[in-house]
Amino acid sequence: MGDRIGDLRGRALRDLRISLTDRCNLRCVYCMPREIFGPDHVFLPRERLLTFDQIERVARVAVGGGVTKLRLTGGEPLLRPGITDLVSRLSRLRRPDGGAVDLALTTNGTALARLAAPLRDAGLDRVTVSLDSLDDEGFGRISDTRMPLGRVLDGIRAAQAAGLPVKVNTVVRRGLNDGEIESIAEHFRGTGAVVRFIEYMDVGTTNGWRLDDVVPSAEVVERIRRRHRLVPVAERGSATASRFRYADGSGEIGVISSVTEAFCGSCTRARLSADGHLFTCLFASDGVDLGPAAAESDDTVAEVLFGAWRRRDDRYSELRGAETGDHDRARVEMSFIGG
What we know:
The chain is an alpha/beta fold. The chain has helices at 52-64, 83-91, 112-122, 136-143, 149-161, 181-188, 217-225, 291-294, 298-310, 316-321, 334-337, and strands at 15-19, 69-73, 102-107, 126-130, 166-172, 194-199, 230-233, 241-246, 252-256, 269-272, 277-279, 288-289. It has a twelve-stranded mixed β-sheet.
């Protein structure tokens, strides 16, 4: 394996995002609103989660077929017991050319202070922390929790102290936290952490998404430019973010514009849910069950995984932008397949 595996639009499979659990200890209003994910919500029973052996098998086959980036997600992945063992196993995978795999993690940061150093020692390359407000009240309102904001900030500092490069993902929603764009950028400028402002997306069907709530990335960039001179950074392949560096050398920011500037044409990402379903689009309605194959052999995984990718024709963000009405169909929830 290792040859380029393309979908129906010629896009290669390069990134695999692996959800370790559908559970989370926060109830962010745009992801797991409490009125839907309340005390009576039924999460996946533990026996239905892919085992670490199954995850390693799928990852190994994917890397053999050209995947160069693995990202662990959730739910909240740090809730999965033994995660450092899994990181250690995945960090030892090698591409067909002998190179290492880029191994990353997306987390809400609430358990990161305790786990950052062990994760780095196990082989994690970098971490992304979701953080939508630097105001205690705003953080509590968005994440619908009494957990202190300082716990997340401590996690970011611990990750940096452990030598992990850190990105901070901020979902911007009109009327909720758009007043903090400048202050969030300012807080992380010069710290080494890169903030990426993400347009509020209609992932899933439970978050009450409206186009009027979207703050276009162009507005975000313009507002920061009023304070600091920004210089565009050259795009890299299938990167989702448009990047800008501060002209004074104090760091960079990024914006992810999947609503106003769809990048379906360069999307190389697939997502594996915690129970083993493969989704070839963040906005998919259903996935292909890889669980049985992952319990059998590498060959059966390769047949199902690459077969699903070769049949892929997804371009939801482009269709939404064209106002075709496709946005009205049911979609899998973000908490089930990660971001």
